[in-house]
Amino acid sequence: MVSSNSSASIREASPAPSSLDTLVSHLVASKRSLSSIEHVWRANEIVTSTRLHLEASVITSARTSFLRAGITTQLHTLQRVHAHSKAIETEGAEEYGEVLRTLDEADKRLRRTLGSLRTTIVEHTLRPESDQRKNLLDFVDEGGVDKLLAAVDDSANVAKEAHTELVDINLGFYSELEGIQNILGGSGLSMHRPSSKRSAGSSHSDATTVSPIPDILQAMEDRAKDMADNLESLVKHFDLCVTAIKHTEGGGDAAQRLTDDLPEGMAVGQEIASAPPEPITEQEREEMLGVLANDADQVEEVLTEIRDHIGEMEGLLENTTAYIAQLDEEHSRVLQAFRQLESLEGRLHAFTAQSQVFVMRWDDEKAKIDERMNELESLGEFYSGYLSAYDNLLVEIGRRQFMEQQMEKVLQDATRKLDTLHEEDSMKREAFKADYGDFLPVDIWPGLTNPPLRFETAQANGTEKVPDISKSVIQRAIRRVEGKM
């Protein structure tokens, strides 16, 4: 007898054992070895269980793959929806930031203009002496600016609130998508294939695509067959032991007694033990005893191989059970992802509506902000014009001062000329009277003795003069006006 995987040939026939005790000891050992039938039964149970596992794994894998494919497709669709909403969020943030920058610049310009108005003191000669000193800002209503800026801030805050809501819902939607993706990404099985006669040393690292159970089942069937073959060789050895004892003097009773009480399921040796021994030659008996002695030495080796095989099969069964558990766990995760996806899709309308609400609110508030920004720009231009007009007023006063001075020069010159003419006329009239007055009657011309004409100059449109403003103030105003041109 040799083990099913052994390559050793039957040993050279050793001296034939003639002792009945020796043959009985071989029979007893052979009888004990038949208890290995329990391992063979267990091997059959394991193979059957593995086949059931294979069927279950095929069904579970198919369901999981179908669900995963559907979920992945839906995830891609939802990711595109999220990307669209995210683009709206990003565009809104950029537009909002640009509006704030424009608003900030306009506010700074207006504040600078108001500051210039506040620091520009009105020349005291332009105001009544009893009036307190005032700046240009005292002559306008600054409250309108504050109200306008407050209205712009209100619209900006409303837009910011709408954008914050969109950011929050986008973040929540992304978190749910990421959670589903993580569930799917966390799925995955890894399991080494068993070494076997068919695929020794092979391994498989992606059990989600190809199940390792078929290889395991093949390895189990190979081992179960080896165990059955080994058991069959043990049974043959047992029969040979019974036959040898029956052909030994005084061994009939021993053979009958030792073939009773065999392991359950074993019905071997009884017929041989109860039947009369068939006649054999002495040479045939010696050859039989030689084979028996050789096989008896290998009984323990065969038993060890059976135990090793059943141990390997138990280990493979544990791997198979663990793999099925992983498949079930993965299927549960995919189901969880599917339920979360269903929940998310149920709220998809609210999510997409939020982005539309933001667009409408932002467009509305942006229109208000643009309108008030235009008002703010107009107000800034008015205040800038007011400041520039005051500088031009100072320049105009300087011009009027110059013209008044020129008029006074002309008037002074004319007065001097009139006085000279008046004096010349008076002297000539006196000379005429001295030469001819005694000869002419007084009543010949009543106006003969009248004095010469005298002219006086007077301001025709009131007595108010141009305010007296220093040349340095006027020169600075001129430089500011020319700098703006």
Write the layout of secondary structure elements.
Layout: H1 20-33, H2 37-119, H3 143-185, H4 213-246, H5 252-258, H6 270-274, H7 282-296, H8 299-346, H9 348-436, H10 471-484
Helix pairs in contact: 1-4, 2-3, 2-4, 2-8, 2-9, 3-8, 3-9, 4-5, 4-7, 4-8, 9-10
Describe, in short, the structure shown.
This protein is mainly alpha-helical. It is built from 10 helices and no strands. The chain is rod-shaped.
What does this structure look like?
The chain has 10 helices and no strands. With 485 residues, it is mainly α. The model is unreliable at 6-18, 187-193, 195-208 and 269-274 (pLDDT under 50). The two termini are 122 Å apart. It has helices spanning 20-33, 37-119, 143-185, 213-246, 252-258, 270-274, 282-296, 299-346, 348-436, 471-484. 73% of the residues lie in helices and 0% in strands.
